[in-house]
Amino acid sequence: MTDNGKALSGVQEWAGSYWDFDKTNYTLSQKKDYFKSDWGDWYLKDSTGRIQSGVQEWSGSYWYFDPTTYLLSQKKDYIKSQWGEWYLVGNDGRIQSGVQEWAGSYWYFDPTYYTLSKKT
Fold it and tell me: The whole model's pTM is what?
């Protein structure tokens, strides 16, 4: 709610995070979804309405959402997840597996865990 008591909807900062509030009844959204905000950016929310960041499972794959902007990553990068594991992120934000080119060499990322394989 605003200082004058008006109920807000859409993406709002609240309780130290960002949340999605339903536009018709102003309650927290209760459906996991990848959705477009009022200003045109896309976000992933969990089943409590909280906007997600870090490595997240969605639509049968794992994706990386920037912890500062909450937006899907759009650049290839080797990142440390919120639980300490390292993953290779593709240009589309998807966590990579199999043989991948990175830092001038080819590397193998386990297709089950998506982490760099330590086996020869």
Answer: 0.90
